[in-house]
Amino acid sequence: HVQLVESGGGSVQAGGSLRLSCRVSGWDYNSYCMGWFRQAPGKEREGVATIDTKGSTFYVDSVKGRFTISIDNAKHTLTLQMNSLNPDDTAMYYCAADTPAYCSGGLFIHRPRYWGQGTQVTVS
After folding, report:
1. CA-CA distance, 24 to 78, in Å (whole number)?
2. The predicted structure's pLDDT at residue 73
3. Region 39-62: what's the mean pLDDT?
C-alpha cells in the first residue's frame, strides 16, 4: 500500500524560501517517477517539478531557477526546495508518484496513481 505524506508548507513573505518534503512508504517498485504538483484556488492542477530514477528532471517554466527537486532514496523522501517565492506560488502542493511508464524524459505523461494529501503554501 503506497502512501505519500507531505510536510513543510506554510506562510512566507515574497522572496522567502520553503522546503517541502514527501515521505514515501510502501513503494515496492524498483524504479519511479515522482514529482510535485500544485493547485491554486480556481485554477487547474499543474505539474511543478518531476524527477525519475535516472535523475532526469522537469520544471515548469515559472519555477525554473527557483525550485529544486531532489530525492533521498535511503530516506524514501522527495524534496522540493523553493526559493525566491512570490504570491503566484501560493497553492496547495501535492507530491505524486508512479512507475517510469507514467513518465517520459522526467515528465509525467499520464496522471500518476499515487498522491499525497497536500500541503498549503501561502506567499504574501
Report:
1. 8
2. 82
3. 93
Q: Which pLDDT tens digit goes with each residue over 18-39?
A: 999 999 999 888 899 999 999 9
CB 50 within 8 A of CB 34: yes
Query: What single letter denotes the amino acid at residue 45?
Result: R
Which distant-in-sequence residues (6+ apart) come within 8 Å of 28 by Cβ?
Answer: none
pLDDT > 80? residue 5: yes
Residue owning grid cell 525566491: 84
Q: Give the span between the Cα atoms of 55 and 64, in whole angstroms.
A: 16
Residue 87 has pLDDT above 80, yes or no: yes
Query: E strands of the chain, at which residues?
Result: 3-7, 10-12, 18-25, 33-39, 46-52, 57-59, 67-72, 77-82, 91-98, 103-104, 107-108, 114-115, 119-123
The three cell numbers of residue 56 are 532526469
Cβ atoms 2, 97 nearer than 8 A: yes
